[in-house]
Design brief:
There is one protein chain. The chain is an alpha/beta fold and about 375 residues long. Helices cover about 40% and strands about 25% of the residues. The chain has helices at about 35-45, 125, 130-145, 150-170, 175-215, 235-250, 270-275, 280-300, 315-325; strands spanning about 1-10, 15-20, 25-30, 65-75, 80-90, 95-100, 100, 115-120, 225-230, 260-265, 270, 305-310, 330-335, 350-355, 355-360. The chain has a six-stranded antiparallel β-sheet, with helices on one face. It has a six-stranded mixed β-sheet with strand order 8-12-13-3-14-15, sandwiched between helices. It is globular. It starts with a strand and ends with a strand. The model has no long low-confidence stretch (mean pLDDT about 90).
């Protein structure tokens, strides 16, 4: 799996640009605010990740332009070429094509070009709210098996309907409201129990790798711990919903379910969110991303493209070197604002970005 070329039109800071990528390690260098991350974000978007910065689609369109276009060509293996085309528009629905064929939903891009993105916002995995870790868990499920991504979409649909009904009930479930609430409870229980099971099973598979990666990046300073925390203990979600119905009606909200769960992260037996340093939190977040990448490689037999956005900014020299050593093989594209690359980074290709333009300034023939 690799990206061969990227063409952008009115995307973020780029009026128009085209970049070819080496098969190995590419380093994108340049001052902050000049468009380095925009290149990685475009590749991630073409891979079905959306904006790993959490931006809306409209925010990806250059100021003053009616639309933006991403064209990303790549290889799924040595022989199968792919072309992903995405048009983002302000006034009409987006258009997505794979090898000239329209794709109905953006999430259908998952699995066409598989990528793992590392970014400064990953720090929120360790210190942010539970919703950030739930999204990481569900993104991991979709990356390991794209069909599992539909579970979260179905959960969100059911919750919207159930919460609307709870608001309509105004604290009392009688007549048709009670009957309809029973229907949505049954749907929520079925999807919720399966989603929790998938999350727990995948986390159990990844836990040893998360510990190993953290131990390596932190140079053995502390042990990492990870545990899935459910909002309805070990009983069925159907039983939990029945017990919580009065409270749900009072609050006009669904108070139990996988949308209320969390992943507890620890460093040295203490909560990472409140007791770990920024460097420790960054190392743990990197370990989480690397574990998902490894799981995708093992289960699907592919090498995802690694997108590393400014991941060395809060790591000391030892941790930065350890991170590079633990990166798996395949295509890796990283950004850094440092004008001089660390000695441990020996790229196959160097791209310099300035003022919304990208130039390949070094590319060995080997």
């Amino acid at each position: 799996m690799r990206v061969c070329s990227l063409s952008l039109l009115d995307f973020r800071s780029y009026t128009e640009t085209e970049v070819d990528f080496a098969a190995g390690l590419t380093a994108i260098v340049g001052p902050n605010g000049h468009g380095k991350t925009n290149l990685l974000e475009a590749v991630g978007f073409a891979a079905g990740l959306g904006s790993f910065r959490g931006a809306t689609d409209a925010a990806l369109i250059r100021d003053g332009a009616p639309s933006a276009v991403i064209r990303c060509s790549g290889l799924q293996d040595a022989e199968r070429a792919i072309l992903i085309e995405v048009e983002l528009a302000r006034a009409r629905p987006n258009r997505v094509k794979v090898n000239q064929q329209p794709v109905a939903r953006r999430r259908d891009l998952l699995g066409v070009l598989t990528a793992t993105a590392f970014s400064p916002s990953d720090l929120e995995l360790a210190k942010g709210e539970p919703a950030v870790r739930r999204r990481w868990m569900d993104d991991a499920l979709a990356a390991v098996r794209p069909s599992w991504g539909a579970l979260r979409s179905e959960l969100d649909r059911i919750l919207r309907q159930r919460n609307a009904l709870l608001r309509q009930a105004r604290g009392r479930a009688v007549g048709d409201v009670a009957v309809t609430l029973d229907v949505w409870d049954a749907k929520l229980a079925a999807v919720g129990d399966e989603l929790r099971m998938r999350r727990r099973d995948l986390l159990a598979e990844m836990e040893p790798e998360i510990r190993r990666h953290y131990n390596h990046i932190s140079e053995g300073q502390d042990e990492a711990g990870i545990m899935y925390v459910s909002s309805w203990d070990d009983r069925s979600l159907a039983d939990a919903l029945a017990a919580a119905r009065a409270e749900d009606l009072r609050r006009s909200a669904s108070t139990v379910g996988p949308h209320r769960d969390d992943v507890l992260l620890q460093i040295g037996g203490l909560p990472a969110r409140s007791h770990a340093s920024q460097g420790e939190q960054r190392s743990l977040a990197l370990a989480l991303r690397l574990a998902v990448d490894g799981e995708v490689r093992d289960r699907r037999g592919i090498e995802p493209v690694l997108l590393l956005d400014d991941v060395f900014s809060e790591l000391d020299a030892g941790r930065a070197a350890a991170l590079l050593e633990t990166l798996p093989p395949g295509q890796r594209i990283l950004t850094t604002a440092s004008p001089v690359l660390p000695a441990s980074i020996r790229p196959d290709q160097l791209i310099r970005v300035a003022d919304g333009t990208a130039h390949v300034i070094a590319r060995p023939d080997t």
